[in-house]
Structure formats: structure tokens, C-alpha cells
Amino acid sequence: MSGPAALAVTILDDRWRPRRLLPVRESWSAVLPDLLMHEGRWIALMQRRPSDSFAAPRPADIALTRAIIRSLRPLDLRLADHLIEARDQRFSFRDAGLL
Known about the structure:
- The protein is an alpha+beta fold.
- It is 20% helix and 33% strand.
- The chain has helices spanning 32-37, 59-72, and strands at residues 6-12, 18-23, 42-48, 78-86, 89-92.
- It has a 5-stranded mixed beta sheet with strand order 2-1-3-4-5, with helices on one face.
């Protein structure tokens, strides 16, 4: 991931170890072909915010996460976590019980 604010999808193996990082540059659907080419069934969203932001999720982050979960179901893919990083903070949707 690069830039002050960035979103990426990490393809995970069955033990949730990272296998490949796919930057989301245009839209979420642009990375779907890459996701389908890999054998992994788990992914994680990695979101980095500018240094003047906080890691707490915004309503748009929650809506994005829910939309992605819905779009993954028919593809037999699962979302392991959505992590938001800002400053020295990190927010995990899984740890917060939002997945």
C-alpha cells in the first residue's frame, strides 16, 4: 500500500497468512479477477489513512465492509478482517465484533 490514504486486499491462505497484496486503485470490482485466480478462500482488507486521521471506522468503512462481504459470498470467498491504520493506531473489525 502506498500514499497517505490507501486500500488494499490481501489474499490469505487457510491459516490466514498473507500470500499476495492487491492495491485497490479504482474500484473494488477491479481486483475480483485476481482474487478468483488464486486458490485462497480468505481475504483481508487493509486500509491506511493519512497521519492526521484516526483509525476508528467511519460509516462509509462499515458500509464498504458489508458490501464486500455480500459480494464475496457467491464467489466462495470470505473476509477474515478489515484493518484500518492511522498514526500509530490500528482498528480491527474482527476484534471489534463487526464481522
